[in-house]
Write a structure and sequence with these properties.
The protein is mainly α and 498 residues long. The protein is built from 21 helices and 2 strands. A hairpin with a 6-residue loop joins β1 and β2.
């Protein structure tokens, strides 16, 4: 194993290997930062270009993209409240308020550091888990997926601060939207209004682009000024080092986020969006000041960004070990492996160990390289927050809509983004939390599908949910999370009485 690792490391630091890694990192940062594109689109476009390459060259190029795209998405999330890719939506909640306070450099510094360290932890977990990967992944079935989705939905109650009722309303709307489209279990379409476009359901990227990017640009245009509010003389564009220090000062949050990211990433079909939201929600839950989140708490940047990059290491476990893609990005990556004659599965780990370590080292190196670039450029990128909104808003909206259209070459996606832009603006105007609607939309489909599959497996018996240890454990954790605020308030009142 060590011989293969050293051989892969030597290949990476050749001129050709370094060039392919650098090219992958550059492409990943650009495609991550442009809303609507992301790693899936980047890898799909690169597949034909890898045809004439050696396997390790193609793997290094793709690994560079996978290791950097998550951080690229955090840049636009922080500066413009526009998640470059869906998992970066959780970063918007505290990253953008920091930018509004003139602390964009601090937020980018924290995101860069958390992303690189999270990526390294995710890769370390991958290396440690590969020998027992099959047993771990096979422990998860539909009941466990359902319990995991309910755990995420339970986090809605913790992310609304003092707006509990409005949060529940927004969450209910998100759940209702998750049920739009073709019903794969019972057949037929639901809530489509006769529009063929809605048969595929509410698409996540146009929705996130609208509810965050376009909504925020509408709001800023009405208010005028710049993204960063206040007197320009008081704004400190540096603060990058403050963000780096904040990550090490909150190291337990980094470790927890990375562990959540790697764990969720290893479960096929769940994805990085769930990982980043669960990491964010768990951080809010564990905080002594949960009301500070959504207002510029640096922990709200560290938690989702560490999970976002760590999930790649987790997602590679089922992909490499037995050819089950952990995400859409990994599904396309399988095509790259097959194109180069590499059959994913247990034999790949034995017969092509060198290629596996080339990928692992490329992803880890890309995470570090992308973060270094981010730290170097953070000070200049932060200046975007000082651009007049009447120049910024048309630019951001145009780029966002082009990115949304490029995803499926569909005008329906553009219309959906605009509609949710208006809805998002109304939610801002009337102070309804957008996070609850997004979490419910992301997890609603997973919860419904897994529930029906579980009932079919159990022949209609609901005991299947609490007769399996992992499913039962997740349900207990969900109950504990929901009850914890009440318990915390009770204990606080008891202390006051004493």
């Amino acid at each position: 194993m060590f011989e293969s690792a050293f051989e892969a490391l030597a290949l990476l630091f050749t001129i050709k290997g370094s060039l392919f890694l650098g090219l992958g990192v550059g492409i990943g940062l650009v495609f991550g930062a442009i809303p609507g594109l992301g790693g899936t689109t980047a890898i799909a476009l690169l597949i034909p270009l890898t045809f004439g390459m050696e396997p390790y060259e193609a793997i290094t190029l793709i690994g560079g993209v996978m290791g950097s795209v998550a951080f690229g998405g955090s840049i636009s999330a922080i500066l413009l409240n526009t998640p470059g890719i869906a998992p970066n939506a959780a970063t918007c909640f505290d990253g953008f308020p920091l930018a509004q306070q003139g602390k964009a450099g601090m937020a980018i510094g924290a995101a860069a550091t958390a992303s690189s360290l999270g990526g390294l932890i995710g890769v370390a977990i991958l290396v440690a888990v590969i020998p027992v990967a099959k047993q771990i992944v096979l422990l998860f079935g539909p009941p466990e997926f359902f319990a995991l989705a309910i755990l995420g939905l339970g986090a809605i109650a913790l992310s609304t601060g003092g707006k509990f009722l409005r949060g529940l309303i927004a969450g209910g709307v998100g759940l209702a939207l998750a049920f739009v489209g073709f019903d794969a279990v019972n057949g037929g379409d639901r809530f489509t209004g006769g529009y063929e476009y809605l048969l595929d359901g509410i698409r996540l990227v146009p929705t996130l682009t609208g509810i965050f990017a376009i909504a925020e640009m509408i709001n800023l245009t009405i208010k005028g000024g710049t993204v960063a509010t206040g007197d320009r003389k008081d704004l400190k564009i540096s603060r990058v080092s403050d963000g780096v220090k904040a990550v090490f000062q909150n190291f337990p949050i980094l470790l927890r986020g990375s562990a959540i990211g790697a764990f969720i990433g290893a479960i096929p079909g769940v994805g990085g969006t769930v990982a980043s939201f669960l990491s964010y929600a768990s951080t809010v839950q564990a905080s002594k000041n949960p009301e500070s989140f959504g207002k510029g708490n640096i922990q709200g940047v560290i938690a989702p960004e560490s999970a976002n990059n760590a999930k790649d290491g987790g997602a590679l476990i089922p992909t490499l070990a037995f050819g089950i893609p952990g995400s859409a990005e990994m599904a396309i990556f399988l095509g790259v492996l097959i194109l180069h004659g590499l059959e994913p599965g247990p034999m790949m780990l034995i017969e092509h160990e060198g290629v596996v370590f080339s990928l692992i080292i490329a992803v880890a190196s890309a995470a570090i390289f992308a973060s270094i670039i981010g730290l170097i450029l953070a000070r200049w990128l932060s200046l975007i927050t000082l651009v007049d909104v009447h120049i910024l808003a048309p630019t951001v909206v145009s780029v966002a809509l082009v990115g949304v259209y490029a995803l499926h070459n569909s005008m329906g996606d553009v219309i959906e983004a605009v509609v949710f832009g208006v809805i998002g603006f109304l939610m801002i105007r009337y102070d309804y939390p957008r996070i609850t609607a997004v979490i419910a939309l992301v997890l609603g489909d997973l919860a419904e599908r897994s529930y029906h599959q579980s009932i079919m497996i159990g022949d209609g018996d609901h005991s299947i949910f609490y007769s399996r240890p992992i499913s039962l454990g997740l349900i207990i954790v969900t109950i504990a999370i929901i009850l914890s605020p009440s318990v915390r308030n009770y204990l606080r009142n008891r202390k006051k009485e004493v």
